[in-house]
Hints:
Shape: elongated
Strand content: under 5%
Number of helices: 9
Order of helices and strands: HHHHHHHHH
Number of strands: 0
Largest sheet: none
Mean pLDDT: 78
Radius of gyration: 25 Å
Amino acid sequence: MGNTLIKIAVPVIGLAAALVIALVGYFVVQSWWSQPPAVLGFGDGPTQPIAFPHTVHVTTAGLDCQFCHRTVSTDEAAGVPAVAQCRFCHDFTRITGEQSESPTAEAEIAKLIGDLIEGPDPVNWARVHRLPDHVQFVHAPHIQQGFSCSTCHGDIASMEVVEQVRNLKMRDCVDCHRNNEAPTDCTTCHY
């Protein structure tokens, strides 16, 4: 009788343990998947080779995202402006006498229009937002549907240093597609 009880108890205990592990795993993944980015360790953006305060360019200068990220409404990627575009604006402000009052800003602008412009290489900006290689995110249809850049990128206009504010995991994207009656077929984003 004792052996029979052991033969029954071991599988039941094993099944109960597996069920507990599965439930704990589910809730951990579920919780992680849906957590706001601050809880997931997002926060300060990466250090860039040149300090680029979006606060000044968007709020003070009144530039729209698409002024610098010109390909966002037509191409897959938003694109980063060429150094020549940055230099054009900063040369123009110098001609009109609109130099910054901040010595720090002037030092960063000097990096941009000084030595860097002479070399053949663009500024090696540190990437802030990254999706897995098997995910295709095309900016153009989102912009053409009227979504603001801030929907995914947050309030860039108030960021001295750009940081990732959404987790950009599959669930985030699928939930947004469902809420906006957009396609949720796998091939929409995966190739």
